[in-house]
Amino acid sequence: MKPNKKRPFLKYLLVILLAITLLILAGSTIIKYKVAPSEAYVLDKNNLIDDGSFENFNQTAGDCCNKYPDKSRVFASQSVNAFIGQYSLNLTSENQCACISKPIKELDNSQKYLLSFYYLGDNPRVCGWTTEDNKCIPEKRLETTNKWTNYQALLEFTNKSEKSLIHFYADSSGELRTNLYDDLQVRKLVKISSKAKFSESEAYIVKTKVDNKINGEKIGGEENGEAYFLVNGRPNITIRFPYYEIAIIVLIMLVIARILLKKEREEWE
After folding, report:
1. What is the DSSP string of 228-269?
2. What CA–CA distance (Å, rounded) separates 102 from 52?
3. pLDDT value at 5 more than 70
4. Which of 149, 188, 234, 239 could crosslink 198 through cysteines, CB 3.0-4.6 Å?
5. What percent of the residues of the chain are helix, what percent strand, and what percent coil, each to the nearest 5?
């Protein structure tokens, strides 16, 4: 019986094809493991809030509930317990909702902004009341804390947005409630190239997929599987660990090894 010369040829051809597939898959996985952001921004130097550290605060507290005007017990003052500077804002309510507001200067609804402030107290709350939209952008109830805590959020407006006033609150239904706020900032995002030279001493906002691993904190704007992240220095973004790709690579390696070992065994026999 004559040996089948086609079988060794087909085996080697299969090994070569599998090896090429292995190299392509491994190469593409390595290349795309580290990715660039789809968008990148640097923060403008100007704070669009006047007296955001409340060093010259002289406003009177409003009552943003005002359900029963004769029961309103709301107060606003400076506190020497400050995160930055000498003073912070103290909002205290014995009944209903103590509040003050700070307008964002020169709002351009086509731009994105970063809202940032520090807070502590019984029941901190923030609302960026936006006229024409007639809703809060953003709206957030914050957890009780006795230490200064930072809150950051991306602000994106609609083409109807005209003005935005950042409101702080202290809410009460008859108990004494006090909240402190400090270092209120709203800064515009200035778009830059995602391949720009990033400074290690600068803060940046970048957009990438939410399941990517990144050296930053998500600040919002989540849509179509992507979101915005605040990073310090160069963004370091990697894709999720490629479990499926690794599994396929290992499987191909096992198939190649089995074919070659079987060939060697047949030749030895």
Report:
1. EEEEESS--EEPSP-HHHHHHHHHHHHHHHHHHHHHHHHHH-
2. 8
3. no
4. 234
5. 20, 45, 35
